Amino acid sequence: MFSPHTVIIFLLSLLGLTIALAGLQPTPPELTFSNASEIFSPLPQGKPPYHPRQHKRGLPFNNPTQWIQSYSGPGSEVNWAYNWDSAVPDNMPRNLQFVPMLWGGQPGHTINWARNAQNAINRGASHLLAFNEPDQCGPGQSCIGPVQAAALWKRYMEPFTNQAWLGAPATTNADPDHKWLKQFLAACTGCHVDFVPIHWYNSYADANTFQYLVNWIQGVKRDIGPRNIWVTEFNAGGIPEIHASEDQQISFLRKALPWMDNTDYIERYAWFWTDPSFRGGSITAGNRQPTKLGYQYAYGIHR
Question: The Asl1-like glycosyl hydrolase catalytic domain covers which part of the protein (predicted)?
Fold first, then answer.
């Protein structure tokens, strides 16, 4: 038998050999990922469960998160947010689920998409958004043809189908016949497009505005089959021109919010938006508290 002293010496020798060999290992190269399929790792349980009874209201914002910090009070109907980007921002409020977006197909958006989307999923994100207003080519719009968008969607979005619910590109009501959206869905063969985001704007908030919103959403629904809808941007009276007072916008929300809440195929929605410098209906004031419109939107309170 070996003496305890001999055993100790033997173990220390093995430890020294292990450390020496470890020192010979080359430093792993830093990897970059341009394709989502190169990095994603499906969760064992697959997609997270869908909870249709959850609150639908969300907050669109630009970094930093200072304008979305005051929506966690008792009775708040707000529970998610997005910022047209894929990286989870610092100081994200805990009561809000962050939803990443692949804004466009340019390298500046795609180079870190897979890593950022995976990180957001690991931190609780259950849905992913794709391509901001590709049907339009103005400022802030991604301007992508439907066939090209389908190819990009397959490359960057489809690899996450076992981990998250995946959104189609978000089109606008500037396309009255939903032509771009229908062409995209036809071109994206084999794609697991789970829901369809849309944007709706009107320069007025008069007696006809609410019905215009209803008719538009119902028209989209007829073209997308069983998929649910996210209204990720909507505003009445503030874009592209301001033709409504805050009280008129509040009156519009009093009609629109209950209808969207009670329409099963509308899964989530987000009023545009939370920037105090925006004069067309910001729901956040300069003191970082909700405006009168914001209290109506988040809490159903008229102040």
Answer: 66-297
pTM: 0.85
Question: Which 8-state DSSP code applies to residue 284?
Answer: B
Burial of 11 (0-12, 13-18, 19+ CB in 10 A): exposed
pLDDT digits (tens, 9 = 90+) for 77-132: 999 999 999 999 999 999 999 999 999 999 999 999 999 999 999 999 999 999 99
Give the Cα separation of 129 and 101 in Å (integer): 4
171, containing H or E segment: strand 165-172
For the stretch 28-44, pLDDT in tens is: 223 233 455 444 434 43
Report the alpha-carbon distance of residue 54 to residue 78 in Å, rounded: 10
Q: Which two tokens stand for residue 113?
A: 């998409």
Residue 274 region by backbone torsions, left for phi larger than 0, else alpha for psi between -120 and 50, else beta: alpha
| CATH class of the domain comprising 57-299 | alpha beta
Structure tokens at 209: 């505005």
- Residue 49: phi and psi, rounded to 5, are -65, 150
CA dihedral 122, 124, 129, 132 (to 10 degrees): -100
* Domain positions in the chain: 57-299
Q: If we measure between CA atoms, which residue out of 153, 95, 94 comes closest to residue 128?
A: 153
φ/ψ of residue 169, rounded to 5: -60, 150
Q: How far apart are CA 15 and CA 37, in angstroms?
A: 39
Instruction: Residue 25: count other Cβ atoms within 10 Å of its Cβ.
Output: 7
User: Collapsing DSSP states into helix, strand and coil, what is residue 10?
Assistant: helix
Report the C-alpha gap between 8 and 138 in whole angstroms: 73
